[in-house]
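Two proteins, back to back. First:
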Amino acid sequence: MALPAGTRLVALDTADRLEEVLRFDAWTFPTGTPLADRVATESGIPWGRAWAVETLDGDLRAMYGCHGLRRFPVPGAVVPVGWLTWVGVHPVARRQGILRELISHHFADCLARGEAVSGLNAAEAAIYGRFGYGQASTQVSLTVPRGAALRDVAGSSELSLEMREWDPERDGPVVEALHAAYAQLPAGLGRPGWATWETPTLRKYVDQDPPALRGGQEPQRLVLVRDGAGELRGYARFRRKPEWQLNVPRSSVQLRDIVALDPAAAHRLWSVLLDLDLMATVAAGPLASDDPILSLLVDARAALPTTNDMQWIRILDLPRALAERRYAAPVDVVLEVTDALIPANAGRWRVVADAFGHAAVTRVDTEQDLRLDIRELGSAHLGSTSLAALAQAGLVRGTAEPLARAAVAWSWPVAAGVDWVF
């Protein structure tokens, strides 16, 4: 690696450097939480798959970590993915090429582990495109007025509710199972991008509820919904944020996440969340762009929906990544791909697939149908960013017929997304 003189790359294998890492992290991600409180909470750092750049005296100058996900959903399949996280460069070390070297190290490490794709949630959206990451999913956030009307759903009123304070030992496995089950819905399709808490590090991180991380709000609460046989059909985790204005309650429900395995459960959960005493609004997000609440609300506009980028995808091994996922329509297309960082991906590739089948991907020297960069291929990989839309922006080039066929094939009936950031 071509790191600046006087620095070196070191592995962060154990948590014995936690306090040092958190001090460094506060330079790159300012926080109002005292260091002692941060040390006492689960950090989510993937020790054993984290690396730092330090001076010869041992002072941290940059770092990154990676969660090795084995069950990441892509259209029609689950695949291993290296999820980039904890990326930061100290202010005194910026503009020295360190981030580029760390990203190159990450790519090589993922490829050595058999991960054809890298993903991330971007703290700053402008950074990662230059490394070949494309925005592949969108999130929606809502501020829903209390009492907002919902469209009727058969069977909702027959479901029972249970509400209790969050207990990670009791409730963590229940929530994890429901959350993982949602990744497979609708049956036969699944939701691309719906990452689950499949590593012990992530489970500990999402299950915790320390006072230091509540922002002065109440302890986390849980709503469970069951059918007539007592089977769990969904959950919601939330806190209430108290506020009064001129003796009028203007408190809000801060919804952490909500999962429903069928429409009736979604309606029942939202019905109770929108009818809690003293609350004025329910703040929800990130939500997938086709989350059921957007269709259930009689007046979705009143919920003030806002959208933002969510997941960014970088294809590392092009033939393997394209062969692992499925396609929504038959396709036979030759792509000419550019990739400034991974030359093995560059060139012309023929992609042939049946509807809802996997593809055969082979290198060819025949005339191309479409031209695009690896970034745009990553944007389209989860099925929610249209190749035709990218073509309208001048980012994909080709004639109308192959573009239309490829755009349909790369799409997916269910929007990509996930309800948490890591």
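And the second protein:
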Amino acid sequence: MTPEQIRARLEALREGDLPVHGGRTLAYVYDAGLTEVDALAREAVAAFAGSNGLDPTAFPSLLAMENDLVAFARTLVDGPDTMVGTLTSGGTESCLLAVQGARDARPDVAAPSIVVPDTVHAAFHKAGHYFGVRVVVVPTGPDHRADAAAMAAAIDESTVLVVASAPSYAHGVVDPVPAIAAAAAERGVRCHVDACIGGWVLPYAARLGRPVAPWTFAVEDVTSISTDLHKYAYAPKGASLLLHRTPALRRPQYFAHAGWPGYTMLNATMQSTRSGGPIAGAWATVRAIGDAGYLALAERALAATDAIAAGISALDGLALVASPESTLVAAVASGALDVFTVCDEMAARDWFVQPQLSYDGQPPSLHVAISAATDPAAFLAALGSAVDAAREAGPVPVDPGVADLLRTLDPATLGDEEFDLLLAAGGLAGADGGLGLPERMAPVNALLDVAPPALREAVLVAFLDRLARPPAVPFATGT
């Protein structure tokens, strides 16, 4: 293919993606609405894409930029002079490393565990799965915050880490960090605060005079914090920070191996080779926006959040799950209004809102992560129209017999044929076996919602597995 053909094909492929600018994709991407900063960041990514963060002595520029970003973050999280940090590929890697470091700091614990609220991000369950660490889940209270007393009671001799959120992703509220951290410290256990969402918003919210519960290193017993640069620092994708109160707390995170004929491997992250692109993109973004710029962006995003929360509360049939304490809003539907259909109707109006399935007696909800570029008036106009259309359409029916069947299925006993049937029943596969998402996802989500979590996971893994298979002819026209 010629360069012109490749550019045209890339543009054609991108037509099927959600937009990353404009503030209408309210999950996965975060938009400051600053065109010049975005262009500058892309230049930085391109300029350093071939650089390798594996060896900071070979590419000292990357180390200098990473240290600059950690120093900037120190001012936001009340970090002491001893605070250190590592730039990772995203929030999940930051959370994984927090668990891995805590586990490896306690070689005396044969079967380590971590204590988390049920609202903790799934990344911590992924860490437990990867690293052989048992995850002890503590139910949250009716306010959706971690129950500090119950978490303290769950700490035992196997506990190597306790986790709190600032805020939790699903509900957008801040856990009682001081009480949780104090309970962990009393037992000699590390306390990690997952501020991947709030780390670049809550400090500015506090400066704007909004009430913010304590969550930073100003809480004496917090040992580490994760905060994402590619969320509300508005940097290009692939940049998060894992911050430790002291170098000694970070040291178990490192991996080194000299017992082979090659070079001595030394890594601070899960990755060995790390492109310098995301590091440079994040550095350029933070330097371009600066402290005053972030204060203004946070004020705009928080004002939009307030307006959207108030607008949702005023809509008949929708109610807030919790009063938002950052930039995340979740809402549930009542009566004949179906939340999954509302999500579909919003998509038809060029707004992507994220459906969240029911959990442990809690109903399904719609979820939005609001950026500085989000227009609250336009969002609420679309939402009002979507609610009217969804109410007229009525809830998505699920055959009671099908629901009962799904509740009895054991995914461990199902083979490819059974999964193919489930995918077809859910509208994720056609009669010809072809896969793809239907135009409307409400019927799919309604079926998934009545299935137990283990079956949801298995069906979606089967779907992803079938999607991620190569074409018969590589680079064929139209692929």
